[in-house]
Design goal:
14% helix, 4 helices, single chain, twelve-stranded antiparallel β-barrel, elongated, disordered N terminus, mainly beta, six-stranded mixed β-sheet
């Protein structure tokens, strides 16, 4: 029993492709939303096997909610092609032979001696030209006895995938529910599992509950560059470091994201989310603290004065629009509320930006202002954001994010690239086509104010590197 459970966990983490239907993929079908029927054809009609394939698919598609097209009716076309057909060397009569053949089919393996049937299905649009989807079926055994089953399985599998894509206008890509720091208006796909790590310290687990609802768990810590009161918004709280060294804050976050309005060709998608966020931390190697709601260089935020942790309610609203050029534009904002649900050990007071202790490398520190009044709760904080991402192909994209602040010199922005390595087809029982890695390489930029005492006669841009990795199992 333990080995079975371990195998199930391994399949969840790395992705498994099991059974005769080896691969099914369908492109967005929203541009054809008025088409509700399918016709099935064989690429080489006339043989008994081709007829059984077609008959099986015509029985499988209605199981997925699709009806067969009437004569002259606009419809999708499902083409079935026999890619391989190998007759077994000898009849598989024994129970042992049948078990071995079943295991080979389950794992996607080949066995020429036991026979093989491989069928490829191609879904075409109503105009007959555009290729909208594909599926492959492969099983061990006598081809003549497998044709009807192959058609039935392919019809049902393609039909289900078509239903998933009926409301989609633009292709889904792994990690498209967020950019580097900011969210988009999409959620993790239904049934998809995400495991990611940013800056080697911040772990995230996400799961697509439905096609419009996503759950998130963030746990870990994040280094914040203390020079200039650097600020980071993950997963949304505005946290600024201070002092001459490194500010390190930890966080625990449970959140849910919901697509309130789905994107179409003419309107943007809108997503809303709520996170219950607990933040804790301290400065390392400097005289400052960890500020919440800091406005970047020079401070002007708040610092925790009474303990180790503070709990927030984080509300996010995001609008996003895709274009046929592969460009995505996002716009939104975070609302950070400190009326805590969980116990909180920190009170807050106004933060001041002061020079580092060495007068040279310190920058601005997030420290308590003299004479400041302690607050039991942090005032309501808002931070807007917008971003632009350009996808070059299914594996590469580049993005720019901006977190505008006043004065403009306190604005933070990021520039970077994303690589989504992954396979295009299953390899044995491993679903390489459903596994995508995410590798983000970005720079977060800020403006360091002039400081003649430190030898800096004018403001200069500074940056710190951002590295994120993730595994997406669709």
């Amino acid at each position: 029993m333990g080995k079975v459970a371990l195998g199930m966990v391994a399949c969840l983490l790395v992705g498994c492709a099991t059974g005769a239907v080896r691969q099914t993929r369908v492109s967005p079908l929203a541009p054809y939303r008025d088409v509700k029927a399918v016709r099935v054809v064989a690429t080489e009609p006339g043989s008994r096997m081709a007829a059984e394939l077609v008959a099986g698919a015509r029985a499988g598609l209605p199981r997925a909610g699709w009806r067969m097209a009437n004569e002259g009716e606009p419809a999708y076309t499902l083409e079935l092609d026999i890619a391989e057909a190998q007759t077994p060397v000898a009849a598989q009569a024994s129970f042992r032979d049948q078990i071995l053949s079943g295991l080979a089919t389950f794992g996607g393996f080949r066995d020429a001696d036991r026979g093989l049937l491989a069928v490829e299905a191609t879904l075409r649009g109503p105009d007959g030209g555009a290729t909208l989807g594909a599926s492959r079926w492969q099983a061990i055994g006598a081809p003549a006895s497998l044709a009807g089953i192959a058609g039935l399985d392919l019809g049902e599998a393609v039909g289900k995938a078509m239903h998933v894509q009926e409301a989609e206008w633009y292709p889904r890509r792994a990690a498209d529910e967020r950019l580097f720091f900011t969210p988009t208006a999409r959620t993790v796909p239904d049934g998809a599992f995400v495991l990611s790590d940013d800056e080697a310290l911040l772990l995230r687990v996400a799961y697509g509950v439905t096609r419009r609802l996503q759950l998130d768990l963030w746990v870990g810590g994040l280094p914040v560059p203390a020079f200039g009161g650097g600020a980071l918004p993950l997963p949304g709280a505005i946290v600024a470091g201070g002092g001459a060294g490194l500010a390190l804050f930890g966080l625990f976050d449970i959140g849910a994201k919901f697509v309130a309005l789905e994107e179409t060709r003419t309107r943007p998608g809108i997503a809303i989310s709520y996170d219950m966020l607990d933040v804790f931390g301290s400065a390392v190697g400097g005289g400052g603290g960890v500020g919440i709601g800091g406005s970047g260089l020079g401070g002007a935020g708040f610092v925790g004065t009474g303990g180790a942790n503070a709990q927030f309610n984080l509300f996010t609203l995001t609008a996003g629009k895709h274009f046929s050029t592969g460009t995505q534009v996002t716009l939104g904002g975070w609302l950070l509320d400190n009326h805590n649900i969980l116990p909180q050990s920190a009170s807050f007071t106004a933060a001041c930006g002061v020079a580092g202790s060495n007068g040279v490398s310190g920058g601005a520190a997030m420290t308590k202002c003299s004479g400041g009044t302690d607050l039991a709760h942090l005032p309501l904080q808002f931070q807007g954001f917008f971003g632009v991402e350009q996808a070059f192909d299914e594996h590469w994209s580049a993005a720019v994010e901006v977190l505008p602040r006043y004065p403009i010199s306190n604005t933070m922005w990021t520039t970077g690239v994303r690589w989504l390595p992954g396979g295009d087809a299953p390899a044995g029982f491993v679903a390489l086509d459903r596994i995508k890695a995410r590798i983000d390489l970005a720079l977060a930029w800020m403006i360091l104010d002039a400081n003649p005492a430190a030898g800096r006669q004018s403001a200069i841009p500074v940056y710190f590197p951002w590295i994120g990795v993730g595994l997406y199992v669709w």
